[in-house]
Batch of 2 targets.
Target 1
Amino acid sequence: MRLSLPLAALAATLLSLPALAADPKPLRIGVLNDQSGIYADMAGPGSVIAAKMAVEDFGGSVLGRPIEIIAGDHQNKPDVGSAIVTRWIDEDGVDVIADIPTSSVLLAVQEIGRTKNKLVLASTGGSSDFTGKACAPTGIHWTYDTYALAAGTGASLAKDGPWFFVTADYAFGTALERDTAKAVVAGGGKVVGSVKHPQGTADFSSFLLQGQGSGAKLIAFANAGSDTVNAIKQANEFGIPQSGIKLAGLYLHITDIHAIGLQTAQGLILTQGFYWDLNDETRAWSKRFYEKHKAMPTMGQAGTYSAILHYLKAVKAAGTTDTATVAAQMKATPVDDFFSHGGRIREDGRMVHDLYLLQVKTPAEQKYPWDYLKLIRTIPGDEAFRPLAEGGCPLVRQQAAK
């Protein structure tokens, strides 16, 4: 059967047009973290939930495109994380990588973002080298870093030593010990030694005995997740605090305190970029998160939400997903949400915001579930984070040269 002329013309026109009726290509955000290992509680599924909440609160789409969150488990291995991110970008059309605990993975992903021109929004990975010697125009560090933890906990307890470090033997632990030791010495304290342990250590007895026999008055744990939980629990089982030696968890989360228990954790000092019970805004968001996850959010999970929401606002304002344009828009716009009011992103990629020095409550002080911390003081962002000129970021030198 031959079509009439008008119908044939219409059919030809429709065939020549782009597939306007096809679904628009989604904007994909990849949340990369440890989904089932030692950092699963502080990041893991909770960070994926926080990312999805950011998308929901933003409205679910931007520039006419639906927003999708996909998750990957890097198993705390740089090669695994790098393979996932490369596949996401090359095959799955992922535009942004977020969260990324384990600093060795984070620094590897930073290089992929630099090479492939994709934004990396770090929340739970902590090495201050991310915005220092390894900085990239595509990398933004959101929640905390090892310098800030040192400026909080390390500086506050500097003279409570001499100090001994029990340190995780990878990039994060090395950076955390380095930055904290500098803060301790600058604050008039003394470091008498350190020992490194493998990631995922079950038995800390030999490391704790070295600290106990070093002459230290404070043993500091430069590790994270279940490593920190196990180390603090075992130190108490061995009677180390009862012998007069203080303990300091340099990188603790609300989920770690929950796992340790107030009876054991009471009195510990910690530095946080966020605490769920700070004010009405943090409580309102955290209670929504709790309904979905059945645990209060860590600072990293809240930071993942904030970073993604700020990114989506920048995409909308810029009218494009072009990496350089969106990064410039993010840096030009103050961060304004429950996580931070007036936070700003510097040229080295550091998001500067207030941090909080807190102390774990005693069981008698607890009033309701997850009521674990009390505020000692707010640390202004410019005091908490490393001065721009001291990080060694090549981007800062290039900007100064211009």
Target 2
Amino acid sequence: MPDLYSRRSFIAGVLTAGMLSTAAGYLFTRRTPVTLTLVTGVDNTGGRNLLINLWNRFHPDVTIRVVTVNSSTQDQYDQFVNTPADIYNLDVIHIPRFAARDRIAPIEAPDGITLLRPVQRVSQVEEGSAPLWAVPFNTDVGMLYRRITDKAATGPEPTLDSVIAENRQFTGQLATEGSVTDEAFVINVLEQALAQDRTIVDERGVVSTSLGQWQRALAPLAEALRRNRIVTAAGEENTNAAFQTGTLRYMRNWPVWYPKIDREERAKPRTAAIRLGRLPIGILGGQGLAIAKDTEHREEATAVIHFLTGMPAQKLLATYGFAPTAQEAYNDPEVKAAVPHLDIVRSAVEDAHPRPMSAGYADFARVFRQHTYDYLYRRVALTDGFVEGMREALR
């Protein structure tokens, strides 16, 4: 669909031009130039770099230097704290740990945005309070990709139960090859459990410690894996490869991959369209920009964060595949026209459940990964040690 992609490119260009004036609106008068260090993970879309380049173009006295740390989600904390920074771009699961270790300072959200409720909740200093530990840069939620071979065909939307019941037509991050892919495995297993029982991890990230509840919730996934009905993959890119190489019908992945997958798959003669649908309950992801507690340039860091997370930036990032954090971006007519599936993403984000927002999350994830992997692939029964391990990690 060249018209769709031409429109996306046009909207991205218009937003970029509009942000030049926004960038110029943050004025600083300094005798000595300052370089702020932003420590972050990898971004392959180019959207974040574009925003940073726009800021630096208009602020020669307050520039941003990006330090990219090639870490897995699990070891991000250790990698980041050993890298001097003024601003951290944190995965949402690390915000509580950085706050508990007194490494970040509270910050207000920029004017003119209304954060989606689940997005705000995982970033707040205290529930109901205005200050945040990190201003959300983007949000994220697991989505169900579907290959359409006939646009005229009608039928009900697929469910996670129905797709894992089919014979090798679904792929997701349900394998792991070490620390780099462990977190993706944890998220996917949690989503499969939530498809059976939406209370197994509630809307505040509180995890059930009922052994029977977990046994019932994971039994359908275990059955599908043991009958070899699922094409498992380790990590997001391997999942994309399995979906595209095998010409599968369904895939679980994040919405940020949609522009790349959609563009490539529409060139195939057997693919009429790639559509995004909701999971019953997705796991909330995303990143937030936080001020390092020990920075000597808090005013400048706050201005940078507000620019990178404000409404013009949110709209621009949406055209790169990122899920916006604020209601206003989802309501913008031009952005909705350029990103037709945006309403579906918003619905999924608003119903998503977070992982446990606790400083002990890393320990929880290790316990969860070990016990569920052994159960799903080695037929080791889930026991009281599983729920006790989770409870101890989150205490």
